[in-house]
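> forwarded from #structure-qc
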């Protein structure tokens, strides 16, 4: 995308009060963002826009656009910065299905993770020690079994889920309720930087946008929209996690919940979800069994025939998971994993000899699926 077109997209996102649904209708009517801004007030009014929206289109936030462009220009591996519109091939098809899907996404890290099968994990910020242990252990094992773990970078269960995936050398995505020029909460700064280098930070909010309370329900629809299902680890009756679970149900995603002690107030939200039809979860296989029709790798793991499950070398397993299910270049793997090319090449050779990977032209590699 050239800079003029990029400026148009960045300006459209910054029009106050213009949500993704109305923005899409304007693009359907006028074409590209530049044409939307150039249409003029009479055309905007003909499209049913209010006085405030017409004023916002007449006076685009050029200073904000300059901030976005400067932020994108500061991109550097492995924490590469990206801007992905809903027309971009990198835009996750799973997310595109939901109502009010974001017009575009700001990202730091590897945007290819958006196309991998994901499980969202959410729960209480003030989680119990047992809840934190459960979140980390489930995330680690699910990551080993080939799922990318998606959460919201919050304190408590979210952070434990991200850490579990990273400790297993798996993949994780953090969806933020603010612009990616800052980390919220600040206590998760180191975790966020690790995710940017080894996974993906994601937001629909432009640079400079603070973490306002009303942003988090919007963030939650992205967390559930990206994933095949949502696992609620621990949640009180009045919890943002239950909002995510409700959104997941509305989006046609699977909803899972881990039960807890009847004496634990942080288990009451999970128990309420189970009464309402969420799947009760005791082991990761309870999740994989439900996702198996959508996830061939999970079906193979449940049947004990998944060749990846027999890999004893953690580095080889990490390389296999990083391949995903698309053809990937060696250079891309080096950037994604942050490992020396010699070690990645050695792991790929072993995986190829074991029939798990196929080498292609131009130092490209494809993961082979066996069921």
């Amino acid at each position: 995308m050239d800079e003029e077109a990029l400026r148009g997209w960045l300006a459209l996102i910054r029009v106050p009060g213009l949500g993704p649904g109305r923005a899409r209708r304007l693009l359907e009517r006028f074409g590209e963002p530049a044409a939307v801004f150039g249409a003029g007030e009479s055309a905007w009014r003909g499209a049913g826009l209010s006085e405030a929206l017409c004023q916002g289109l007449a006076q685009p936030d050029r200073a904000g656009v300059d901030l976005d462009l400067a932020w994108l220009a500061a991109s550097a591996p492995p924490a590469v910065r990206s801007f992905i519109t809903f027309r971009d091939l990198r835009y996750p098809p799973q997310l595109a299905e939901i109502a009010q899907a974001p017009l575009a996404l700001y990202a730091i890290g590897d945007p290819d993770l958006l196309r991998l099968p994901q499980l969202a994990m959410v729960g209480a910020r003030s989680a119990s020690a047992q809840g934190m242990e459960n979140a980390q252990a489930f995330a680690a094992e699910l990551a080993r079994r080939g799922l990318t773990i998606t959460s919201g970078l919050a304190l408590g269960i979210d952070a434990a889920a991200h850490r579990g995936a990273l400790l297993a050398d798996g993949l994780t995505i953090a969806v933020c309720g603010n612009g990616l020029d800052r980390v919220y909460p600040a206590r998760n700064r180191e975790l966020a930087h690790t995710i940017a280098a080894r996974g993906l930070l994601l937001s629909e909010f432009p640079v400079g946008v603070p973490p306002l309370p009303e942003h988090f329900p919007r963030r939650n629809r992205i967390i559930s929209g990206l994933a095949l299902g949502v696992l609620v680890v621990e949640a009180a009756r009045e919890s943002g996690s239950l909002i995510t679970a409700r959104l997941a149900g509305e989006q046609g995603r699977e909803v899972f919940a881990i039960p807890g002690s009847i004496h634990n107030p942080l288990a009451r939200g999970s128990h309420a979800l189970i009464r309402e039809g969420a799947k009760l979860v005791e082991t990761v296989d309870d999740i994989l069994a439900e996702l198996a029709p959508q996830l061939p790798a999970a079906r193979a793991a449940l049947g004990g025939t998944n060749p990846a499950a027999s890999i004893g070398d953690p580095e080889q397993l990490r390389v296999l998971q990083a391949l995903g299910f698309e053809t990937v270049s060696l250079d891309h793997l080096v950037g994604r994993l942050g490992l020396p090319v010699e070690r990645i090449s050695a792991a790929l050779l072993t995986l190829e000899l074991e029939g798990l990977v196929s080498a292609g032209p131009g130092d490209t590699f494809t993961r082979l699926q066996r069921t």
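QC bot note: Residues 257 and 273 are 7 Å apart (CA to CA). Residues 297-309 have pLDDT under 50 and may be disordered.
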